[in-house]
Design a protein that fits this description.
With 99 residues, this protein is of the alpha+beta class. It contains three helices and five strands, in the order βαβααβββ. The longest helix has 11 residues.
Length: 99
């Protein structure tokens, strides 16, 4: 099962890539985040989650096939990977304000 992850902002810098293909057997968004965190040397969780929690900070948007995980099942959102019907595409971006 392969999952394509597109990265934006600081996450791109932390993982040193614009896009990553995850080949590991990943069942949920939470498992995917754990893999990405490990690849970043555990630096991703320092700014991705609210301190002391597994809650994604409000400034981050994570989309699975164009749908926000906040409107799905959050970190427990199921991923299906490559099969005859569905290819999961994940977009992770951080919103920033400016003036």
């Amino acid at each position: 099962m392969a999952i394509r992850v597109k990265l934006y902002g600081r996450i791109r810098d932390y993982l040193n890539a614009q896009e990553i293909t995850v080949e590991e057997d990943v069942q949920t968004v939470g498992e995917l985040v754990d893999i990405l965190n490990a690849r970043s040397g555990n630096r991703l969780s320092e700014f991705f989650f609210d301190p002391g929690t597994r809650e994604i900070r409000p400034s981050f948007v994570m989309l699975v096939n164009g749908h926000s995980i906040r409107l799905l099942q959050g970190l427990t959102t199921k991923l299906y990977g490559n099969n005859d019907i569905v290819i999961d595409n994940i977009d992770i971006l951080e919103t920033e304000g400016g003036g």
